[in-house]
Design a protein that fits this description.
three-stranded mixed β-sheet, 10 helices, globular, mainly alpha
Length: 236
């Protein structure tokens, strides 16, 4: 009888642990973003620095749980997108006040991220996990480098159940933002992101074909393409 009870207990515990893992909550991050990030993506780093515990509470969740094989693609993708953004905010806050993320020496190569005893840089998350694993160019409109020319930091967490809709919305918002891209039928002046990561945006088609999926203006296939100078000033 004791053996049966013990076995049942282990089975129940196993299911509970599994449920906790596969239903990782981004609720703390969502609440944080709603409080400290405006609808236009401006981040109140000064206020965050004065209330660092709120950010640290979410980072602690990230540090103790990483995506598992049983997670869905969208669960894992949302985790890494949110992690990239949360740790970027952490990096800025730890060095605040500053005018630009570039004021921090080699910011994307700093080994300051520890998740389940494994150390990462921001470049590791972007270029060794997100880009090669998911091959989804829309990720570039979701992860944020804390600069004015970056896509805006959404004031809502990316969630597995709404991820594809959110990524499409982020792509449309970024591409049609005239402060970040200037698009006409015959001439486009676009973000340097499209130059830096051309391979990601041309995996299945030409760059203009990709842009036309999200642009409000129909771009001619022979339109002239140029790139706007990136503004690295802090997104506050």
């Amino acid at each position: 009888m004791k053996t049966i009870i013990l076995t049942l207990s282990l089975v129940i515990s196993s299911h509970l642990i599994s449920a906790q893992i596969s239903n990782f909550s981004h609720e703390k991050w969502n609440g944080f973003l709603n409080k400290y990030v405006s609808a236009t993506g401006n981040v109140n780093y000064k206020a965050i620095k004065s209330n660092a515990a709120e950010l640290d509470n979410y980072l602690q969740l990230l540090k103790t749980t990483s995506p598992k094989a049983k997670w869905t693609v969208n669960e894992a993708k949302a985790y890494w997108i949110n992690a990239y953004n949360a740790f970027t905010v952490k990096l800025i806050v730890d060095n605040y006040p500053l005018k630009s993320i570039k004021d921090i020496g080699a910011p994307w190569d700093k080994k300051f991220i520890t998740i389940e005893n494994k150390t990462y840089t921001l470049n590791d998350i972007e270029n060794k996990i997100l880009r090669p694993t998911y091959k989804d160019a829309r990720i570039h409109f979701a992860i944020v480098c804390a600069a004015k020319s970056c896509p805006i930091l959404s004031n809502k967490a990316y969630l597995p159940e709404t991820l594809d809709v959110q990524l499409d919305e982020s792509a449309k918002r970024f591409l049609n933002d005239t402060g970040r891209n200037k698009i006409t039928n015959q001439n486009i002046e676009i973000s340097e992101i499209f130059s830096w990561f051309t391979a990601d945006f041309t995996q299945k088609s030409k760059l203009i074909d990709f842009l036309n999926q999200y642009s409000k203006v129909k771009i001619d296939k022979n339109a002239k393409i140029s790139y706007l100078t990136y503004n690295w000033n802090l997104n506050e």
